[in-house]
Amino acid sequence: MYYIQQCFYSLCCVIGFSVIFNLPRKLLMPAGISGMVGWLVYVLIQPLTTSFIMPSLIGSIVVGIIGESFAYVKKHPATMFTIPGIIPFVPGYGIYYTMLHIVEGDVDQALMTGAQSLFIAVAIACGIILATTFMRKLKPYLLHLL
Amino acid sequence: MTKENRLIKLALTTGRVLLTNGAETYRVEDTVKRMLESRGMEEVNVFVIPTGIIMSTLDEGRNYSFLERVNPAGIDLEVIDRTNDFSRRFTSSKMSLSDAEQQLEALLATPSYGRVIRFIFCGMAGGFFIFLFGGTIVEFLIAYLASSLTVLFFDYLTKYKINFFVKHLLAGAAASALGVLSILGAHAIGVQADLNMIIIGPLMTLVPGVPLTNGIRDLISGELLSGSAKIMEALFVAIAIAFGVGIVLQLGLGIAA
């Protein structure tokens, strides 16, 4: 039940952000699904590991793979699906918090949240690039299998 | 204007449209390069940073170089999608220059979502985030409304071309002011809600998570200059929001105490 709830919330959240990014109407649902599956993988992996990087990395690899597949099926750039898709785990709040800690004069906390957010962002970027690279190379074989 | 100059201008305008609306660096470079090469230009070199495009090319022994200044204005996926489609059609067909200029013009007048739809969906964006962070239904409702209002306020500021730092500072201040006011309101009618939780929602619509990730993606792909520039932009947006929120929270707590 918990996972179904999380799916629904992340789906709504990603679709909302897609509208903020002015995503074409007919791509809202695919983008929402890529974000939803990414977040589901993220919450499934979170209890299995103590690392804060692993869930984001694997989640964004999944988002990247789904994005590339949708890009192929729907004939639109993969960015249309990956940018909204990574929204649920993007560390926007982390860098805001870093700056808030600095404004409040709490430098230790700022360094910690800052480093964490930076590495989460690196993990997400890395995941997307890994997924894109592999999907581009594997595409001929995958199409052959289908 | 000569034919070559018109072609270069068309390609650079396409590049500028892409870059203004938040397309990736490699996409802009690739688009400009392909558009020029499809009409027989040689040795096309394009260099893109978030605030400008520099290109040089050879055509029948003559050397052309241009610099196009760009002001980034957030992410608009619809425009990127259409421009991308336009450049593909341009490179794969024998489209005439005047046709292409007209199409590019038409493309800029893209429909975006109406204000009511934006209000409903932007609320969803911030509101459902509260649930992902483990919030309650009251906090969800407040955050939903606050997010919608924040995004509309932000759109309003964008329309008047206000400097990005000031814009984010004001929007951050507005988001937290809404949070503080609604907390006071909720407490007045006896409902419990957490202030931090409520501020997260509307702020999520402002914080530069995607620009930061895009910047790092550029860095990883070897676009060192534009990657650094995007990360700096994301940092300063975050500073602006933190300033806005900080000011309001200090004032708000002062009033409450």
From TrEMBL, chain A:
Record bears the keyword Hydrolase = no
For this protein, the parts annotated as crossing the membrane are: 7-24, 44-66, 78-97, 117-135
Tell me the compartments it is located in: Cell membrane
Q: Which domain of life is it from?
A: Bacteria
Keywords annotated in UniProt: Cell inner membrane, Cell membrane, Membrane, Transmembrane, Transmembrane helix
Q: How does it sit in the membrane?
A: Multi-pass membrane protein
Pfam families given in the database record: ThrE_2
Q: Which residues form the Threonine/Serine exporter ThrE domain?
A: 6-133
- Where is this protein primarily located? membrane
InterPro entries to which the protein is assigned, alphabetical: ThrE_2, ThrE_Dicarb/AminoAcid_Exp
Recorded family membership: Belongs to the ThrE exporter (TC 2.A.79) family.
UniProt-listed PANTHER family: SUCCINATE TRANSPORTER SUBUNIT YJJB-RELATED, UPF0442 PROTEIN YJJB-RELATED
Q: Report what the protein is called.
A: Threonine/serine exporter family protein
**Native species of this protein?**
Fusibacter paucivorans
What taxonomic classification does the UniProt entry list for its organism?
A: Bacteria, Bacillati, Bacillota, Clostridia, Eubacteriales
Automatic annotation (TrEMBL), chain B:
Xref: Pfam families: ThrE (PF06738)
Where is the protein situated, by its record's location annotation?
Cell membrane
Q: What is its main location?
A: membrane
The annotated topology with respect to the bilayer is: Multi-pass membrane protein
Keywords for the protein's UniProt record, in alphabetical order: Cell membrane, Membrane, Transmembrane, Transmembrane helix
Where the record annotates domain Threonine/serine exporter-like N-terminal, the positions are 10-251
Is Cell membrane one of the keywords UniProt gives this record? yes
Q: List the signal peptide residues.
A: none
Q: Where are the transmembrane segments?
A: 169-189, 195-213, 234-256
Q: Return the InterPro entries for the record.
A: ThrE-like_N (IPR010619), ThrE_Dicarb/AminoAcid_Exp (IPR050539)
Q: Which family does it belong to?
A: Belongs to the ThrE exporter (TC 2.A.79) family.
Q: What is this protein called?
A: Threonine/serine exporter family protein
* Native species: Fusibacter paucivorans
Q: What does the organism's lineage look like at the top?
A: Bacteria, Bacillati, Bacillota, Clostridia, Eubacteriales
